[in-house]
Amino acid sequence: MDKEAIRQYKKETYELYKRLHLCTACHQQDAYTLNGRALCFECGEKNNARIKDRYKNNADVRAKEKEYRQQLREKYKENKLCTRCGKPLEFDTTKKSCKRCLAKMRQRASEYRMKKGIMPRVLFDGTERCVICGKQEIVKGYKMCNKHLPIFQKTMLKNRKQINNYFIKANRAFWEAKNATN
User: Fold this and answer.
1) Range 107-131 burial, b when 16+ CB lie within 10 A, else e
2) Residues with Cβ < 8 Å from 27, sequence gap 6 or more?
3) Collapsed DSSP state (helix, strand, coil) of residue 176
């Protein structure tokens, strides 16, 4: 048999076992195909361990993966897709990720802060703490500490000069809505 015939045979047997809801590796156990899986639990665990081991112990594989991910991110960015999941972005967004991915990132960051013993930013609002770092030494009349206030002010001065800035758009929309109700 030549390579093409072997490849075709393997593909056909894979599809057959998948249709029969059997594991495509060991051909014995139920493969949870209702969840979209083709491997049984044991074979799936073995496969995951093998992939993790290959990725962890091989710098070449990690470098190729990193390069591939960067190219994919650039491609997504050019096509106005979420750089994490590849779904279409909203039309007027300046973000590079969709709302769902941003929410997941915020959740992970909050969990990481909790794990490290740092109070999550959600709890900073309405307290006498810096909204950036959570320290209690805030400047009177502001919600930031001496370290973050000048950085924020400098950033806002730069952003005021940009017409398409998110803060300018949001502020304009807020005041237009407020004037419309009066």
Assistant:
1) eeebeebeeeeeeebeebeeeebbb
2) 17
3) helix
> 0.85 cut: is pTM over it?
no
Which residues, 6+ apart, have CB-to-CB distance to 78 below 8 Å? none
Would residue 126 be called left, alpha or beta, if left means φ above 0 and alpha means ψ between -120 and 50 degrees? left
Write the pLDDT tens digit of every residue in 22-61: 888 888 878 766 577 888 888 889 999 998 888 888 888 8
Residue 7 included in any domain: no
**Both 132 and 155 in a single domain?**
yes
108 in a domain, yes or no? Answer: yes
- Sign of the alpha-carbon torsion through 75, 77, 79, 82: positive
**Same domain? 84 vs 113:** yes
3-class SS at 14?
Answer: helix
Q: What is the mean pLDDT of residues 133-149?
A: 83
Domain span holding position 109: 69-118
Cα–Cα distance for residue pair 104/82, rounded to 1 Å: 13
**In a shared domain, residues 157 and 139:** yes
Count up the domains in the chain and report the number.
2
Residues 131 and 114 in one domain: no
